[in-house]
Specification:
Blueprint lengths: L35 E6 L3 H14 L3 E7 L2 H11 L3 E5 L7 H11 L4 E6 L4 H8 L5 E4 L4 H41 L5 H10 L5 E8 L8 H5 L6 E7 L2 E8 L5 H15 L4 E4 L9 H18 L4 E2 L8 H13 L3 H13 L4 H18 L15 H35 L6 H7 L4 H12 L3 H19 L4 H7 L5 H12 L3 H10 L1
Helix pairs in contact: 2-3, 5-6, 10-11, 10-12, 11-13
Length: 510
C-alpha cells in the first residue's frame, strides 16, 4: 500500500486557490490589464518625449509607464514598473541597449523589446535579433513603420498572455482536483499521476485546519509569507480554512508545529490551528486531513492551547465499527472512510468485522427507508472496494434526506399556492428537480400522484370553507383554485360521495 510521494513508480498503483512564493511548482503571475505597459529607453530627451507623444496619440490602449535616459536606468525601471514592452535605443552611454536587454531578459523573459537604431548601429540590431528581439525601428522612423512594429509586438504579448492564462487555469483546476481527492480519500492511480505532474520530487506533506472568527477576514498576505519555498493549496470548508502544505524537503512534527505557531501568532488569540502529522506517503494524506480537523476541534474545546496535533487515541475494533456506522448514517463518507482506513491498517478478525459491518449497515439503512448500495458484499481484501461501498452508502443517505427535504418544500409550496393554477412543472421547478424525476419521487414519498395530492389539499380546504358558512359555493370554488363551479362540484362528489350542497346540508343537520 505504501508509496513514497516522490516515487515515480507510484503511477502504477491504483480535490481553491494558491499563492505566489519562491516554490518551483508555482505558476508565474500573469499581469492582466486593460492597457499595454510600455517603457521608453532613449538617451536623447527630445526623442523620448516625441516617442511618448506619438504612442499616446496613436494608441488608446498603451500606457507609457516610464522613461529611462540610459541602460542602467532601463534595467532598474523594468524591475520596478513591470512593463510589457520596452522601446530600447541601442547606443546609450554606460550600459548600452544590448547589455540592458540581456540583463532585463534574465530577470523577466516575458518582456518584449522593440529596438530603436540609427543606420550606423544596424550591426547591433542584427546582433539583437540573435537574442530573440524581433522588431526594430530605424531612425528617423516613419509613422506607419512604428505603428506596425508596435502592433506586431502587442499581438505577440497578448497571444502569449492568453496561452499563459489557459495554462494557469488548467493548473488551478488540477490543483483543486488534487486537494479534493485527498479530502475525499480518493487516492488512486490518477491522484498519484496528478502528484507526479504537479509536484515532482515531493518529499513530505501535511494538512492544517484553521478556525478563525470571522473566517472571511483572513487575508492571504497575512499568512502566505510563513510558507517560504513550500507550496500549498487552500480551501474554505464550512467554517474552517483547510490548507495542504507540500514540500520538496523532509518535514518533521517540530517543523509543522513551528509553522502552526507562526500562523497562530500572526492571526491572534482568536485563531485555532489544528495540524495533521507530516507524511511521505500520498495514501496517508487523507488521514492527515482528518487529523487536522480533529485537532482544531479538540483545541477549541479544551481552550488551553491554540495550535497542535490531535490527541492520541487508543481504539478498539468495535469502536471503529460504531464510528463507521454513525458517519455513514450521517452521510459523511469522508469520516467513515477515515475510520475504516484507521482500522484497516492494523486489522484483526477482519472477516468477522467486515461481515458485521456489511449486515449492520444494510439493516441500519433499511430501517430508515434508505436503499443500500446494490453492489453486494465487496471482496474481503479489496480496500478500494470497501471504501467505494461506504461512499455509495453515504451518498444514498444524503440523497434520501435531500429528497425528503425537497418533497417537504414541494408540499409546502402546494399548501401555500393551492388556490392558484399551479402545475407539476411549477412545483418541480421550486424543488429544483426535473418534472419526470419529481413526479416519480413525489409518488414514492407521499404515496399519491401530484394531481391527487393537490386535489386532496384543495378539497380539504373547501370542506373548511363549507363548514364556516361564510362563503357561497361559487366563491369557494374560486378560493380553492377551480375556475368552473360545475367541475368543482363533480370532483368534490367523486371524493366525498356528496356534492358541496349536500355536504353543507349534512353539516347543518348536525
Amino acid at each position: 500500500m505504501s508509496s513514497k510521494l516522490n516515487h515515480s513508480q507510484a503511477k502504477g498503483h491504483e480535490s481553491n486557490c494558491y499563492c505566489r512564493s519562491n516554490s518551483p511548482w508555482r505558476e508565474p503571475v500573469i499581469r492582466r490589464e486593460e492597457t499595454m505597459r510600455v517603457l521608453i529607453a532613449e538617451d536623447e530627451l527630445l526623442e523620448r518625449k516625441a516617442m511618448r507623444k506619438f504612442l499616446e496619440d496613436n494608441f488608446s490602449d498603451v500606457t507609457v509607464v516610464g522613461e529611462a535616459a540610459n541602460g542602467r536606468k532601463a534595467i532598474e525601471m523594468a524591475e520596478a514598473l513591470l512593463p510589457q514592452i520596452i522601446l530600447m535605443d541601442i547606443k546609450m552611454p554606460g550600459i548600452n541597449g544590448l547589455e540592458a536587454i540581456e540583463a532585463i531578459h534574465r530577470r523577466d523573459p516575458t518582456i518584449k523589446f522593440i529596438l530603436v537604431s540609427a543606420y550606423d548601429s544596424f550591426d547591433y540590431a542584427k546582433q539583437a535579433m540573435k537574442m530573440g528581439v524581433k522588431e526594430y525601428i530605424l531612425k528617423p522612423s516613419k509613422k506607419e513603420e512604428t505603428i506596425r512594429a508596435v502592433l506586431r509586438v502587442k499581438k505577440e504579448v497578448m497571444e502569449e498572455a492568453a496561452r499563459m492564462e489557459e495554462h494557469r487555469h488548467s493548473s488551478l483546476i488540477a490543483r483543486e482536483l488534487f486537494l479534493t481527492r485527498l479530502m475525499k480519500y480518493e487516492v488512486g492511480a490518477d491522484t498519484f499521476e496528478l502528484q507526479e505532474t504537479l509536484f515532482p520530487g515531493l518529499q513530505s506533506a501535511y494538512f492544517l485546519a484553521i478556525k478563525y472568527q470571522p473566517l472571511k477576514e483572513i487575508e492571504t498576505e497575512d499568512w502566505a509569507k510563513h510558507f517560504g519555498e513550500d507550496d500549498y493549496i487552500y480551501r474554505m470548508e464550512d467554517d474552517q480554512l483547510i490548507i495542504v502544505v507540500l514540500s520538496r524537503t523532509r518535514k518533521d512534527k517540530a517543523a509543522v508545529l513551528k509553522l502552526a505557531r507562526k500562523l497562530q501568532v500572526q492571526l491572534g488569540p482568536q485563531a485555532y490551528i489544528g495540524a495533521g502529522y507530516p507524511t511521505d506517503k500520498l495514501e496517508d494524506l487523507p488521514d492527515a486531513y482528518h487529523q487536522a480537523i480533529q485537532a482544531v476541534k479538540h483545541l477549541e474545546q479544551i481552550g488551553n492551547s491554540n495550535f497542535g496535533f490531535p490527541p492520541a487515541e487508543q481504539r478498539q475494533s468495535n469502536n471503529f465499527l460504531e464510528d463507521i456506522l454513525l458517519e455513514v448514517a450521517s452521510g459523511n463518507h469522508t469520516n467513515a472512510i477515515h475510520f475504516f482506513s484507521e482500522w484497516w491498517k492494523d486489522k484483526e478478525d477482519s472477516v468477522e468485522m467486515l461481515h458485521e459491518l456489511y449486515f449492520r449497515l444494510k439493516q441500519e439503512l433499511q430501517q430508515r427507508g434508505i436503499q443500500p448500495p446494490e453492489t453486494g458484499f465487496p471482496v474481503e481484501d479489496d480496500y478500494q472496494g470497501w471504501t467505494d461501498y461506504l461512499k455509495l452508502a453515504s451518498l444514498n443517505v444524503l440523497h434520501h434526506y435531500q429528497s425528503q427535504d425537497k418533497m417537504e418544500r414541494a408540499k409546502k409550496f402546494i399548501h401555500d399556492h393551492f388556490h392558484e393554477p399551479i402545475s407539476l412543472e411549477d412545483v418541480a421547478e421550486h424543488a429544483e428537480l426535473s418534472p419526470n424525476y419529481f413526479s416519480n419521487l413525489f409518488k414514492a414519498s407521499t404515496g399519491e400522484t401530484f394531481i391527487d395530492y393537490l386535489t386532496h389539499v384543495r378539497l380539504q380546504k373547501a370542506k373548511e370553507f363549507l363548514q364556516s358558512h361564510r362563503y357561497t359555493l361559487k366563491e369557494i370554488c374560486f378560493m380553492v383554485g377551480y375556475k368552473d363551479p360545475n367541475y368543482f362540484s363533480r370532483v368534490f362528489k367523486k371524493y366525498f360521495s356528496l356534492s358541496p350542497k349536500q355536504y353543507q346540508k349534512e353539516i347543518l343537520k348536525k
